[in-house]
Amino acid sequence: MMVPLEWYLILSAALFCIGAYAVLARRNAIAILMGIELMLNAVNVNLVAFWRHLEPAGATGQAFALFVYVVAAAEAAVGLALIIAIWRSRDTVVLEEVDLLKG
Amino acid sequence: MFDSLPEVILRLAWLIPVFPFLAFLIIALWARRDNQLCHILAITAVCFSLVLSQVVFWAAVLKPVGGGEHAWLDSADWIPTGSGSFQASVWIDPLTGVMLFMVPIVCLMIFIYSVGYMNYGTPEQDKRYARFFCYIALFATGMLGLVVSGNLLMLFIFWEVMGLCSYLLIGFWFEKESALKAGLKAFITTRVGDLFFLLGLVALYSAAGSLQFEDVLSPETLVHLSETTINVLGLHLPALPTIAILIFGGTVGKSAQVPLHVWLPDAMEGPTPVSALIHAATMVSAGVYLVARMWPLTLAAASLAPGIVLWIGAITALFGAIIGVFQDDIKRVLAFSTISQLGYMIAALGLGAAATDPALQIGAYVAGVFHLITHAFFKALLFLASGSVIHGMEHGHHHVHSPASPHGHEAHQRFDANDMKNMGGLWKRMPRTFWTFVAGALALSGFPLITAGFWSKDEILAMAYEIKPIIFGILVFAAGLTAFYTARQISMTFLGKPRTKAAEHAPESVHSMTVPLIVLAVFAVSLGWAGIPDELPVIGPLVPNWVHGFVETTIEEHVHLEHHAAAGQLASLAPTAGGSGDAYNWAPLAIGLAFALGGLAVGWFVYARWQPIESADQLDPLERALRKIHMGWLYEFFRRRAMFDELYQKTFIGASIAISRAFAWFDSTIVDGALNGAGWLGRTASDLLNRYVDEAVIDAFFNLVGKVAGIVASANRWFDTTVVNGAVDLTGNATTLAGKRLRRVQSGQVQAYLIVSLVAVVALVAVYLVGTQWLNW
Question: Are the Cβ atoms of A102 and B758 closer than 8 angstroms?
Answer without folding.
Answer: no
